[in-house]
Task: structure prediction
Amino acid sequence: MSLSSAPPVYFYAMSAQLKTFLDRCCGLYTEMSNKEFYFIAAGAEGEAGRRALERTFDNLMGFIDCLENPIVRGRLLATGVWHVGDIKGNPALQEALELGRKV
Result:
């Protein structure tokens, strides 16, 4: 089972779209054991807002903590990404490449 999702993040918290997705996993979560997870988030805040953006990951850990033997393989934050093209030259691109190679 592979899981990929890229919902928006609003105000440094889980969006309604992601919450709905997790709610729909409720009946299956007892079957989700030994799964690997990678967290990737991008946000407009600069480096100073990194901790606020990490709250999104904290929200997801509430779900992950209910699973049997979950394995968080990576966490990636791309900060300072707001407008088209802002990601160019961002060190997070190289980090994403490295994470992708581990999958």
